[in-house]
TrEMBL record:
It comes from Acanthochromis polyacanthus. GO terms for biological process: phosphatidylinositol dephosphorylation. This is Inositol polyphosphate-5-phosphatase Jb. Belongs to the inositol 1,4,5-trisphosphate 5-phosphatase type II family. Pfam families: Exo_endo_phos2, SKICH. Residues 1-23 form the signal peptide. SUPFAM superfamilies: DNase I-like (SSF56219). Keywords: Signal. One of its GO terms (molecular function) is phosphatidylinositol-4,5-bisphosphate 5-phosphatase activity. It comes from the Eukaryota. The keyword Signal applies. GO terms for cellular component: cytoplasm; plasma membrane; ruffle. Residues 1-245 form the Inositol polyphosphate-related phosphatase domain. Gene3D superfamilies: 2.60.40.2840, Endonuclease/exonuclease/phosphatase.
Length: 369
């Protein structure tokens, strides 16, 4: 998660992908009020996914029709300031794949309000695309080279009267515009003819190494009326050859824990994994959102006698076990890498706990005294 005033970025992953998400880092850049206020700017999250670097960048750029150049300047400033640690992909555009999205605030130039609304009413969006500031900037701004966007086949998402689907009727009467956008970029483009035209549904783009990004849909959501913007969403498939397909730690656990004695797990570490005495194994409910959402945990300490062993066992005490039954997952957290590097498949915990009601015993003793 990465957040700033007016900006929030959340990245979710399926549990079985977690061991292959490495090097997670976040950055924030304020551009409001000359860099002092976080109402404008960018928040990002980067990671290595199966050995390929990916960066998600959420931006809120300056508003108003006349500030197109300022929007580009702020975007370039965000790219320059956001630098990550490590030898590979230190900048946003150094990543294999970049997803850039947010309230980018680009407007529709030249056309009068009546012309824009008429085009919207008659689904003639193509005449508006040609005057869209972001589309025009892609033809002239070097920093936008390689960025792709699916066809805008939905009505402009700004500006609406809050609580309605009616474009702005206030005294300002803002001209409708596609302010809310989702774009992507690959670090290198495929050879000529390998990618489909971006204007076609299910547009595809790919690296020469075989990486492909396929956009399946790109749409707005008119049913949301709590803002003067309409949210947009997109679904992508990212395909690439695995560079990393073996977890650093393999966890083995029984299908069910029916008693406290069953609460054990075995783990194996890869030869290239550097263990820490602060590594731990967490017990998580299926659907957990963060590595600290564990029900209980045990330390995966490295003893001197462990160096020659291939397998290591840990045991959960009764205090570390859930009070009720359910489906759970074990995850191995690496202190050095600050991420989960091994997980199990879901398994069931069905353990009955015995509790001693001290208050009842005290009352009974008092009664018979």
């Amino acid at each position: 998660m990465s957040r700033m005033q007016g900006l929030l970025l959340l990245v979710f992953a399926k549990y079985f992908h977690l061991p292959f998400l490495r090097g997670v880092q976040t950055e924030t850049t304020r551009t409001g009020l000359g860099g002092y206020w976080g109402n404008k700017g960018g928040v990002s999250a980067r990671m290595s996914v199966f050995g390929h670097t990916i960066c998600f960048l959420n931006c809120h750029l300056p508003a108003h029709m006349e500030n197109s150049d300022q929007r580009m300047e702020d975007f370039e400033s965000i790219l320059q300031q956001q630098q990550f640690e490590g030898q590979a992909a230190t900048g946003v555009l150094d990543h294999d794949v970049v997803f850039w999205f947010g309230d980018l605030n680009f407007r529709i130039d030249d056309l009068e309000m009546q012309v824009v609304k008429s085009a919207i009413d008659n689904n003639k969006y193509s005449m508006l695309w040609e005057k869209d500031q972001l589309n025009m900037a892609k033809d002239s701004e070097t920093v936008l080279e390689g960025f792709q966007e699916g066809p805008l086949k939905f009505s402009p998402t700004y500006k609406f009267d809050v609580g309605t689907n009616t474009y702005d009727t206030s005294g300002k009467k803002r001209k409708p515009a596609w302010t809310d956008r989702i774009l992507w970029r690959l670090r290198a483009t495929a050879p000529a003819g390998a990618a489909l035209n971006a204007g076609k549904r299910g547009s595809i783009s790919g690296l020469t190494s075989g990486t492909k990004v396929t956009q399946h849909c790109y749409r707005s959501h008119m049913e949301y009326i709590v803002s003067d913007h309409k949210p947009v969403s997109s679904i992508f498939t990212l395909q690439f050859p695995y560079k990393v397909d073996v977890p650093l730690v393999t966890l083995i656990v029984e299908d069910e824990w029916n008693s406290i004695a069953d609460a054990t797990a075995v783990f194996k570490v890869a030869p290239n994994y550097s263990r820490s005495s602060w590594d731990w194994i967490g017990l998580y409910k299926v659907g957990f959102k963060h590595h600290k959402d564990y029900v209980g945990y045990v330390w995966a300490k490295q003893e001197e006698a462990d160096f020659q062993r291939q397998e290591h066992q840990v045991t959960f005490t009764e205090e570390e076990l859930p009070k009720g039954s359910g489906d759970f997952i074990l995850g191995y957290y690496s202190n050095n890498m600050s991420t989960i590097v091994g997980v199990t498949e879901p398994f069931q915990v069905i353990i009955s706990h015995c509790f001693l009601d001290v208050r009842t015993i005290m009352y009974t003793l008092y009664f018979w005294a």
